[in-house]
Amino acid sequence: MARLAWLGLGTMGAPMASRLIEAGHDVTVWNRSPARAEAFERRATIADTPADASRGTDATITMLATPDAVDEVVLGSQGALTGLGDSGTLIDMSTVGPDYVTHLRSQLPEGAELVDAPVLGSASNAEDGSLKVFIGGSDDTFHRWSKVLAPIGKPMHMGPLGSGQAMKLVANSALAGLMSLTGETLALADALGLEQGNAIAGLLESPMGPAMKRKIDKFESDIYTPSFKLELMLKDMRLVDEHASKRNVDLKLIPDAKEWISLAYERGYGGYDYSSVVAGIRGREATG
Known about the structure:
- By secondary structure, this protein is of the alpha/beta class.
- It folds into two domains: about 5-160, CATH 3.40.50.720; about 165-280, N-(1-d-carboxylethyl)-l-norvaline Dehydrogenase, domain 2 (Orthogonal Bundle).
- It contains 15 helices and nine strands.
- The protein has helices at about 15-20, 35-40, 50-55, 65-75, 80-85, 100-105, 125-130, 140-150, 165-190, 195-205, 210-215, 215-220, 230-245, 255-270, 275-280; strands spanning about 5, 25-30, 45, 60, 90, 115, 120, 130-135, 155-160.
- The strands form two sheets. Strands 3-2-1-4-5-6 form a six-stranded parallel β-sheet, sandwiched between helices.
- β2, α2 and β3 (about 45) form a beta-alpha-beta unit.
- α9 (about 165-190) packs across α13, α9 (about 165-190) packs across α14 and α13 packs antiparallel against α14 (about 255-270).
- The radius of gyration is 20 Å and the shape is globular.
């Protein structure tokens, strides 16, 4: 079993850390809001700072919302880097994009190991250990750390450092596009006078069916209890836009999906599930 530090106990981070604890790993946790860490007091060691959490560990794992948050938690004055030392391992499971991984690698000592391992899935997947873990690093890195991360979900080796982040942006682009297309098709069905239940039943028989199936209750009720918040999807789509622009990739559908998500955010849906973009496109009032 490994000795691990876990930094970030949000909607996804808390159940992911719990999975590692339940698997028998020795875990020290830290969170910016101490109340979230206190829920772990009988199961894990609670650290006062990221630096304290990281000292003496086999690996420090971060699960944070934004690149700025990773910068602060890892590179700040009481950051994890202080505790990691010159030869520690940092596994970043946040969604930050491959360009940020390059930046982060440049800030670590030459002897330190960095692994990018963002996840695909929702809070319920985090709870039952069925996330997809996109790992970027060498073959040795993957074989060494995939066993440690296996309680969280299915580790998948995407290629060298940064490839995990690249795959996460690709996957979320597909999700955003599919959900925006769902919104547009249902808006068209509304305009053509189709009853909602019939429109959904018909679409479930189409190639879009698998993408829609898990969200049907939300579409029908307009209650979008979050499993992945729209504001986080918007953050990810901005990362997609940034990375695509730097590489002169000619995209059309994905920027349109980003625009729909941005408009839903402006409607006040940021704290709702990302699928609330469907309500926004249809001009319906969503709740969370």
